[in-house]
Inverse folding.
């Protein structure tokens, strides 16, 4: 799946709908699919809220392979220093923001964030592994 989404709040719904269909069609188990959807939504929301790219777009590439999902979320915004974000400490629940990268890192099995302050945008690459259902279990809905 490849999507080019306008950088606006309403694009999140299109992303979730398209991505849910892809995950379901490829037999991704519900728990893994939910975690991938949440992490991808967080990456999109971060691009929307923080990229500073007012006229831009977010590009999402996602594919399901054997027993894992690969996702890449790319914006053309101002960038940031990913090393300045602590993804190991639980964010303060009283704050209105600051949980996105923490959640992404804790929901996904592999995360790579590439960004520079030079305004070249940010790329979030994520992998989620899941146990593959046998053809028999998939056919019975298990």
């Amino acid at each position: 799946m490849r999507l080019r989404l306008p950088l606006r709040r309403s694009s999140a719904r299109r992303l979730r709908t398209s991505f849910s269909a892809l995950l379901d069609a490829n037999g991704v188990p519900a728990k893994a699919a939910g975690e991938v959807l949440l992490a991808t939504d967080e990456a999109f929301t971060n691009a929307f809220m923080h990229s500073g790219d007012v006229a831009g777009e977010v590009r999402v590439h996602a594919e399901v392979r054997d027993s894992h999902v690969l996702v890449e979320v790319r914006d053309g915004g101002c960038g940031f220093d990913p090393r300045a974000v602590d993804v190991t400490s639980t964010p303060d629940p009283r704050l209105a923001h600051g949980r996105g990268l923490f959640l992404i890192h804790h929901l996904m099995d592999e995360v790579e964030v590439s960004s520079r302050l030079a305004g070249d945008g940010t790329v979030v690459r994520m992998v989620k592994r899941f146990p593959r259902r046998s053809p028999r279990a998939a056919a019975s809905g298990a």
The mean pLDDT is 88. The chain has one domain: 2-140.
